[in-house]
Amino acid sequence: MIFYNKSLDHKFIDYGIQIPISKSRSEKCFEYLKEKFPEKIKETDCTGLSPLSKQDLLLAHNADFVSSLFNSEVEEALITCFELRNEDGTWNRFDPDCATKPLSLLKDEILLQAKASFLSMEESLKSKFAYFLGGGMHHAMSFGGRGFCLVNDIVIGIRKLQKLKKIKTAWVLDVDAHKGCGTAELTQNDETIKTLSIHMGNGWPLDSEKFDKDNQLNPWFIESTIDCPIFEGEEDRYLQVLKESLSQLEEKFERPDLVVVVNGADPYELDELPSASLLKLTLEQLLKRDTFIYHWLKEREIPQTYLMSGGYGKHSWEVYAQFLGYILKQS
Asked: What is the 3-class SS of 38-57, one letter each residue?
């Protein structure tokens, strides 16, 4: 199942936020697929879809942060998450005068999209495969949002399924350009969730001090179960490293009940986010990445859910569209 509804798209420019996420990447991908496979794809009916509740959020986030999302602190939480203020107090990639909606309303959109991530995971338990054209907020940590990720829909969705006794264990396979630091922080002491992150060896979020002023490890350096750093110029190693790392995960741990793939398009060589520029995979390499993961999981009959995660600029939709086109041809 491909889960898409236009109402779930974030149009950041409506809130005055000027990060290079094309407001049409999900829509463009969906329209391309609809044109190519008119009998196989349709928009998901989201009538009656409700956002994540406070209790859902508490499955991953602490009470102080969750409370802040439902009181006057919500705008500050969003400003921090989307890095909208410079150290000197001036705005960064943010023009409130151009906004057509109050910033606080973005929270509701995000929680609605995060609920769709959960529903996609739930669907994959029935159909073995689900792809949500949204979600993948892998930088959000227990104490707050960061890196354009307000809440961690990945961990929330998995733990909600666990709470409902629909699964016991899950893996998170993160192929976004940036380390899945929030997911690693949230699951560091959780034996039921294993994480694999293949990402830029340098650059954000690993470009700051490793330890804080009290000599405590900064949380974005907390290790995933398996971390696979790819350094600049090592793109030819990418697929082999991914294969070896998945084999390692399989050797060490029992088969999971679900795998969530954080399917970032930002390793693409045409991605427009400066902080993703240290990893430059071709469209062909990205298709090999995605089809390898798909078949690896399918052969083992493991339910697989894909979330879009990072993908910036006018070409990002191509990465998702080529993979989903491949899937639809198989069906």
From this structure: CCCCCCCCCCCCCCCCHHHH
**pLDDT value for 22:** 56
Counted domains in the chain: 1
Question: What is the rounded distance in angstroms from the CA atom of residue 213 to the CA atom of residue 226?
Answer: 27
Question: pLDDT > 70: what percent of the chain?
Answer: 99
- Assigned domain for 94 exists: no
Q: Is 142 part of a structural domain of the chain?
A: yes
- Does residue 116 fall inside a structural domain? yes
* Local structure of residue 96 (DSSP, 8 states): G
Structural domain for 217, as ranges: 2-12+22-51+105-330
d(CA 295, CA 330): 11
pLDDT band at residue 10 using 50, 70 and 90 as cut-offs: confident
304, β-bridge pairs: 129, 259
pLDDT tens digits for 143-167?
999 999 999 999 999 999 999 999 9
pLDDT interval class at 272 (50, 70, 90): very high
Which CA distances in Å does 313 have to 179, 200, 228?
Answer: 20, 19, 25
| Domain membership flag for residue 95 | no
pTM above 0.85, yes or no: yes
Distance between CA atoms of residues 263 and 137, nearest Å: 11
Q: Residue 211: left if φ>0, alpha if ψ -120 to 50, beta else—which one?
A: beta
The CATH number of the domain where 311 resides is what?
3.40.800.20
Helix/strand number for the chain, H first, E second: 10, 7
